[in-house]
Amino acid sequence: MWVFGYGSLMWNPGFPHSRVEPALLKGAHRSLCVYSYVHRGTPERPGLVFGLDRGGACRGLAFRVEPEDREATLAYLRAREQVTSVYIEATRPVRLAGGAIVEAVTYVVDRRHPQYAGRLDHDEQLRLVRAGVGRSGPNPDYVRSTAAHLLDLGIRDNRVERLVAELA
């Protein structure tokens, strides 16, 4: 089994894996489009986290999970990613850095869910990120860590980089 990470899973997978490779998923893009009510905010003071939204492409990391770890990994991911059911578990083809295409479990945003923020303007994103604090810590830390790992992978995201610069 493979798991595709595009946000915090890239730098904090939390499950055993035997291999990790840069990967490309087509048909969805990384977007700061999910109100966080648990990990990086609360219902009263939501944060903002990344989701895979339809259209475009997304570079991230693919993690190889061995068969003996499959069920425990899926249980872990479901508990982590589906706390409020804003993400839909899906299996999508991803292209690994070496060119191979593998099927990977990933979590795409449910556009019908009340936590789907859609495409917010920059000032609203900045306001939400600055204010958000949840079970997993301050929202700015999440955005900074994701941005740093994107840069480590050679992935440029001007919107995220601008947000991080203004959080400083």
- Count of domain modules: 1
* Total beta strand runs: 7
Q: Return the string of H and E elements.
A: EHEEHEEHEEHH
Name of the top-level CATH class: Alpha Beta
- Outline type: globular
Describe the structure.
With 168 residues, the chain is of the alpha+beta class. The chain has a single domain, classed as Hypothetical upf0131 protein ytfp (Roll). 30% of the residues lie in helices and 38% in strands. The protein contains five helices and seven strands. The chain has helices at residues 8-11, 70-81, 122-131, 139-152, 158-167; strands at 2-5, 19-36, 47-64, 87-96, 101-109, 133-134, 137-138. The protein has a five-stranded mixed β-barrel. Strands 6-7 form a two-stranded antiparallel sheet. The longest helix is centred in the last third of the chain and has 14 residues, at 139-152. The protein is globular, with a radius of gyration of 15 Å. The model has no long low-confidence stretch (mean pLDDT 95).
Task: Quickly list its features.
five-stranded mixed barrel, two-stranded antiparallel ribbon, 5 helices, 168 residues, Hypothetical upf0131 protein ytfp, alpha+beta
